Amino acid sequence: MTHSYDIKLAAQMAEASYAGRANPSLATALRKELDEDDVQALFLKGDILLIPGSNSVADYLKFNLRILNIGGKRFRLNDDDTEAGASGTSWHQGFLRHAQMIYAWLERERLRPKYIIGHSLGAAATQILVRTYGVPGIGFAAPRPRRSRGAIKHSHLCLCVNRDDDAVCDLPGSFHHMGHVHRALARRSVFGPDHSMKHYRKVIDEQQVAGILGKRWPG
Prior knowledge:
The protein is built from six helices and 13 strands. With 219 residues, it is α/β, with parallel strands linked by helices. The strands form four sheets. It has a seven-stranded mixed beta sheet, sandwiched between helices. Strands 1-13 form a two-stranded antiparallel sheet. The chain has a two-stranded antiparallel ribbon with strand order 5-6. It is globular and about 40 Å long.
């Protein structure tokens, strides 16, 4: 059975994920929490996997991020470093290692998600893990983790919601998204890329009121 989830609620949860168990709305739903080698993930009741990333575009674009400093190696944002995942798909190496750490944690804890939600770097991992588990997922402010273009197995289950003024969503330049990309045109932009979840929640409200974005995914 394919699970459907409310997109607006998913955006609220993605914003709350940065506070982790300190957020009252997540604390009551939290089953397990990963915080290892600067990779974070939350596993909630209902078998929902929630993956925060970077809420700041400035931190993201520096890309000597601690979250990708895995095993003593820093993964920089460029168009050269790729690695094949278990499925044979060629992914950006840093994003893949991030997703692999979350996968290894889920395996150790004997957890299997039914739905995956991520933001920023967490949205890159969401795309990879949707391919791995064959379950639906939403990535907000999603960068491009795939080397190749076109549909692959389970890509129809993945939704990327990206603002048109968010530069992170076009990086790395020669890579591609997985699944359906909803590119949201905001009514008004603040100075600089609007990367944080508070800006995404606003544009989701606008797009749904206008009937441009559905209420649930999969719809």
